[in-house]
Specification:
single chain, alpha+beta, Mutm (Fpg) Protein, Chain: A, domain 2, 3 domains, 9 helices, 8 strands, about 15% strand, TPR-like_helical_dom_sf
């Protein structure tokens, strides 16, 4: 009957090694006993990115198609299974059937040196995108290590747009939330430096930086429900709310002093304004003390300054009441008033002006 020599070549163009091959459903009538795919192509390892294995096969001359099934197992546990006719190299139909699909498979025939059926395995478009996503994620991790947070977040966003694998998406989201959180922590440190600087008024810059940090912590917490991120979000919310109330109280204190400072001012109105300011300072102090329980370094100065204002306002209220409402127009009342003004001016912390 005689046989005809041909070759089968499998090329792995994917990004995963083929760690095992198996062949089945070979008809004994079609093949030479020693040169058949279920012998020559069993348990082959084919490296990724262009690795290949080629084996000689001998088919019977009068065999019709010489079909066989091949299973390819990859390093990531994915599997391709297909059926094809070896005699396609001699012009019969290919009979190709991709029965279990993990990758793209194409086939062709080459007669350059000897008749060869070439099977090419390649990543799908989505797998190519997933590979690019992992590359973008690694680039983001490098940027994160150098504290280039803007670039890191950009790379993580690009990776998320490309990726379709749940496990990889979770990793990218974790990295992205870490970038938001670290950026926010860096801004909190900047706020501490601004608060320690008493050379000029930094209140607006502090407020703007706090708002920016808040958005970063909100973004981090939305991506990852981490206790650490929730902690930082609570910190910055307490800081923002405490500062807002403190600034309101500070304005009330200033207005009260203006009324009191006016020669014909209303001492009753001044006292009431100081009392309103006192309530606000106490509210601000409560926020700062809550923050102090979470992070002493970030709130200790705020607590001390709020307490100093409360002490100052209490002293002003006591001094005003000591004057006596009935004596506010008398000479003695004016002397005491002048003394209180001088004492009040001496008590003002330059960091709070």
């Amino acid at each position: 009957m005689g046989t005809i020599e041909s070759y089968l070549k499998v090329v792995n163009n994917t990004n995963q090694d083929i760690i095992d091959t198996s062949v089945s459903s070979c008809d004994n009538y079609d093949w030479d006993e020693n040169c058949r795919p279920d012998r020559n192509f069993q348990h082959q390892n084919i490296p990724a990115r262009g690795g290949s294995v080629s084996q000689r096969l001998e088919v019977k001359r009068n065999a019709s198609h010489c079909p066989f099934n091949m299973v390819l197992t990859f390093a990531d546990s994915t599997v391709d299974k297909f059926r094809i006719h070896q005699k396609h190299v001699f012009g019969c139909c290919a009979g190709f059937n991709h029965m279990q699909r993990a990758h793209d498979i194409t086939f062709s025939v080459s007669n350059e040196n000897q008749p060869t059926l070439i099977i090419q395995i390649a990543n799908t478009n989505q797998q190519v995108q997933n590979e690019e996503a992992e590359k973008k994620n690694r680039e983001g991790e490098v940027a994160l290590e150098t504290k280039d947070y803007e670039t890191a977040i950009k790379k993580f966003n690009e990776a998320l747009n490309l990726n379709s694998q749940d496990s990889v998406s979770n990793k990218i989201k974790s990295n992205k939330s870490q970038a938001f959180n670290q950026w926010g922590e860096e801004l909190l440190q900047k706020i501490g430096d601004l608060e320690a600087d008493i050379t000029d008024d930094k209140s607006q810059e502090i407020q703007d930086t706090l708002n920016e940090a808040l958005k970063l912590f909100q973004n981090a917490e939305a991506l990852s429900n981490s206790p650490k991120y929730q902690h930082n979000l609570t910190l910055v919310n307490l800081k923002i709310e405490g500062n807002r109330i403190f600034n309101e109280a500070n304005e009330m204190e200033k207005e009260a002093f203006v009324i009191f400072d006016n020669g014909g001012g209303d001492i009753v109105a001044a006292r009431n304004n100081y009392k309103d300011a006192l309530v606000k300072f106490q509210e601000a102090l409560k926020k700062f003390e809550d923050g102090l329980q979470l992070d002493r370094d970030k709130f200790e100065d705020c607590v001390n300054i709020a307490r100093a204002h409360i002490e100052e306002v209490n002293q002003m209220i006591d001094d005003i009441e000591r004057i006596g409402l009935n004596d506010r127009t008398s000479g003695q009342g004016n002397i005491e008033k002048d003394e209180i003004k001088t004492e009040s001016e001496d008590r003002i912390d330059p960091r709070l002006i």
